[in-house]
Every structure is written in C-alpha cells, then in structure tokens.
C-alpha cells in the first residue's frame, strides 16, 4: 500500500478518529479473512492427519528394526528387541517407553534411543508419503477430508489472493495505527511533545494514503466475499465426491500444500543451475487476472518464462504447459501489456480459446479462417490474446509492419518449426524477432537429434544456439541440460505429480490367425510398409487383434470404465467401429474440424459410465484432454515413440483420478516386432535428452533411424524372413 505524504493537512481530533476507525475496520476485515482461512485450513489438516498417520504406519511396518542402528550410528543394541518380536520400525514406533522397558535386557537408555530413532524415521517417511484418493473405494476417513477441502476449493483462487493481501495489509497498517493513536485527541497531541506529535501526524498521513488507495476499496469487497465463502455450511458427502471427480487437480494441489509433501524442489525446478533457479524464485507472479490456483511447479514455470524472456518449456505431457503460458500472459497483462499472440496447430486452436477464457480474465481473439484479416484488425485495435494457426500466421503482417507489438509470443507444439526452411518457421520467426518475450511449448523438443533442439534455440537465442553442439550429445544428458539451461525447462510427471494414479502398460501379443497371416504375407510381398502395419485388421472376421480389442472393451464395460482406441489408420478405426457396433464416439481424425473434435470428446466425457472413443493418434494425441478415459488401446505401434507418449498422456495427466491401463496390440513375428526392436533405441534417446537420465551417454546420431530408412529396413527384413520360411 502507498505510504507517506504531507502531514500538515492531516488534522487531529474527530476527523482523525473517523479516519483511524475506517482503517481499523479495514484491518479488522483483513484479520477476519486470515482467521477464517486459518480455521478452514486447520479443519482440512485435522481430516488429513489420520490418513497420513495410516500411510506412515504402513511404511514403517515394512522397515526392518535393524535400520534403527543407522540412525544411531551403530550405538543401539537391538538383540533384546528382536528376540521379543519387535521386528520392524513400526512395531517399535507404536510402543511406549514403559512397554519397551518391560522387555528383558532393555533399559531406560535403550528404550529412549530406540523410540527417538523410530520417531526420526517416521518423520522422514511422512515427508515422502502422499495421499491418493480412490474414487472407486470411498471410505470413512477420506470423505471428511474431501468435505473439508471442498470449502477451500469452492472459494477458488480468490482465497490465496485475499490471504496474501491481508497479510501485507495488516503488516503495514497495524504499526501505523499504533503510531497514529495520539492523533485521536487534540489533548493527547498537546501533551505528547513536538517529536511524538510529528510522528503521530506522519503515521496518520500514511494511514490516510492506505485507506484512500483505490486498491483498498477493492480489498474490502474481496475480504468480505472470501470470508463468506470460507464460512459456508459444509458440503454434503455426495457433493464433495462429485466435485472431486470434476476438479481433482485442485484438490490434490491443496493436499500437497497442506501436507508439505510436494515434489522435490530441484525436480520441480527442472534441475536448473542454482543461479538461474534463485533468480526465478525471487520473482513474484501477479495472478490478478488468473481464475485458477497454480501448482508450485506451474508457478515456477511461468516465472521462468518471464525471467528468462525467450525460452522453451518442455514439460512432459499432462503437466499444464498451457496454463503456465496463460499465467505468464496474465502477469504481463497486469503489468500493462495489452497484446499477445498464440500460434498453434489448427487442432488445438479451440482448446486454447477455451483455456484462456476458463483460466483467466484475458480476452481470446481467434484469428483463423476466412475472417482472419478482420479479426486481426480488431485485435490490433482492442488487444487481447490473438490465437492463430501456423498456416494462418504467414498471411498476417508481422512485427512493426503489422502496426502492433506483442508483449509475448507463445508457440504451441513448437517442434513444428524445428525446420527453419519451412513457411511456418519463417512466419514464426517474423514475429519472434520483433518480440522481447517468446515462449515455445513442446513436450518433444527433439525427437531424434540434438540438432533439432539447436534449431529451436536458434530462433530464440541466435547468439546462444552455436554453444549447443553435438559435443554435448556425446558428453551425455547432463552436459546437454547444462548447456541449454538458460532457455530450457522440463519437468516429468513422476517428479512433480506424486498423486497421479498408476500407469499400467501391457503389450498384448497375438498370434496371427491363418487369414491374418495370408493378408500379412500379401502385404509383405507388395513391399508396402503401411499395408503391412494394418494387415492384422484386413480380415475382420478372423482378426486376432480385433478379437483381443473386443475382449478389452467388454472387460472395461463390465467395470464401467471409459476406453479410448488409437490407431494411425482411419481404415483400421472404421473396422473397429463396425466390430464394436453402435454407441461408439468418433472417430476423431484430422479431417474433422477442431471444434467438432472437442465436441466429441466432451460428449464422450459426459456419458455416465462406460463409453468408447475412437481416434486417429495424430489427431487425438495433440491438444485434446481425455482424462475421462482410464483404458487406452493402441491398435499398432507407432513409428515415432513420442506419438505414443503424447496419446497416452492425453488420458494419464493432471486431473486423472483412476489408474490408466494402456494395452498395445502387437502381432508376433511381424512388422510390429521389428519396429519395437528399432524403436526401443529411439525411445532411449528421447529419455536421455528430452527427459532427465543418468544412463545414456551415446551420441544421438549413432542411434538415429529416419522414418523412411526404418520402413525400408523392416520391409526388406520381413521379405527375407518370410522367404526363408517357405
């Protein structure tokens, strides 16, 4: 709040009392919202405690009592405890001092040391456990926790904003109110002495500045509304469970905050060098225009983009790169920036529009289709977030030539512009070279070569790109990550989403039926790689893969689970659709407009219980969020490992509340098996450089196989193998 100001025109007496009374009311409303928030948090912590205790007890029960000697550096003698049946740390931790002293050979010192060591291990275990809520197994302990959390979640992001503002306001106002107290009475001022009187008048002037600040008037309304929200009657048990299913990510975010069991700080900060991480942490993110609360790692990602200005955010799929970008735009908007540009594939344009509107108060302006020139002109005049596609961008005037300066350019699926010779790359460069802040979003910054990553770096930081060389690839992933740290941040699901349900992957190997094998031999004989890949579905009546797919869908139906089926081929999806019959959603494909794709996904998610969505993996693997599905079926392996990663991540992402089971349908002794042998090496390369890994030290060029070379190699190998079997 603004302080200081002239003191000569600040009278004491009645007007001072009125001013101080107004200030005390403002401070009182701030203290009230802090008290109301503290009460809501304490209720949630009280409900959380027994769940954490149970997890800790379970963890301690698996730790042998011998581990107590490590805590006491070998000073503790455990023979008597072990002989008495105290075989685990949990057994000791649950015992009292008196109980342990009753054991022959255990004195007071040994009992105290054993209990202290057990408590120390229990504290360490508590720091590592995280509560996971199973919607299919509600219990008496979890329900009160959800009811308590519901109050905080329902109050929304205004709670954090109000609490932060209340803390700042009380810290500023309360000392001023105490110092200004003599000004309540002219008589007190008269007997206070000149120096004390001057201090009181100065404090009174500062109080007046705070009270009359327009921001303070807004805070009165904010504090009142948040207090009302925090004091509402508890939700019903059913309401709390339903709300959790709808927005589980917000519940888990609160859980991590309350339990202190968030991700490891280094992991959440992408293992950045200390100097960069410290600079990012020191930046305050203005969330005035946000409608959502950010996870800790998401706030760090937004601040990284703002602090480093021209960066690649390469978080693994499902961690909320979009909301981090929106948070960065909202921060800049709060600071006075008015124009922003988002460039993305056409398939995700509608998703960007929806996310900007849902997650912030910023105005989304679609600049796409036949009316794009008019929309561009309207954006140039009124501002907001222009959302356009790679194909439309080249038709828009860029930079100064367009008469507009963008506060930030965000490029989604930025690996689409890794080839600088393409028209889309040139169009993006036309904007990024005139913009101070650029944010590239991609979960796959390099699929096969470090050179591809360097191409993205060249667009962002031409001076730094030459510093990232193939030498860093040869030296391993640590050298690579150090070299790109100023412009690259990546976090993985395992590192930052401890609550994410398990991902269970199963390769479903099937033997060709005689008809399958006949179709496959014909495809191999033709030398047509894509025909070989879909041959397993060429004879639907006897297709072994199709039979297994039907079994998996039937099993999911029996359990009331939703299924998404991915294939590269529309022809395969048509076959699956005919095999499953009516009631199947889709298929989602590149031929369907983006808005229609989203409608299909929304309708699929709205079904109560079992449903099946069919999707081409190229279309559904990018931009669509399919957390409603907990069973994923891949009809065939993909040439690019990242395509499968992206497709699975559309279901196994923040907001998923069930274990995700992935079934990959594979035919033995076929193109599938040959592909997996080769792709395993490409997958390891991706893990080493796009993810964090201590294992891979080989140069990327040594294991790269281009798509065309892979196809030719597999066709030749299969032709030779089948010829030898004849």
Question: Nutshell version of this structure?
Answer:
The chain has 726 residues and is an alpha/beta fold. It has four domains: 14-48 and 139-243, no CATH class; 52-126, DNA polymerase, domain 1 (Orthogonal Bundle), CATH 1.10.150.20; 265-495, Rossmann fold; 501-725, P-loop containing nucleotide triphosphate hydrolases (Rossmann fold, 3-Layer(aba) Sandwich).
Could you describe the 3D structure shown?
This protein has 726 residues and is of the alpha/beta class. The chain has four domains: 14-48 and 139-243, no CATH class; 52-126, DNA polymerase, domain 1, CATH 1.10.150.20; 265-495, Tandem AAA-ATPase domain (Rossmann fold, 3-Layer(aba) Sandwich); 501-725, Rossmann fold, CATH 3.40.50.300. It is 55% helix and 9% strand. The strands form two sheets. It has a seven-stranded parallel beta sheet with strand order 3-4-2-5-6-1-7, sandwiched between helices. The protein has a six-stranded parallel beta sheet with strand order 8-13-12-9-11-10, sandwiched between helices. α32 (641-649) links the parallel β12 and β13 (660-667). α33 (671-689) runs antiparallel to α34. 46% of the residues are buried. The model is unreliable at 1-8, 471-476 and 684-705 (pLDDT under 50). This is DEAD/DEAH box helicase. Its EC number is 3.6.4.-.
Write a concise keyword list for the protein shown above.
single chain; 726 residues; alpha/beta; DNA polymerase, domain 1; Rossmann fold; 4 domains; 34 helices
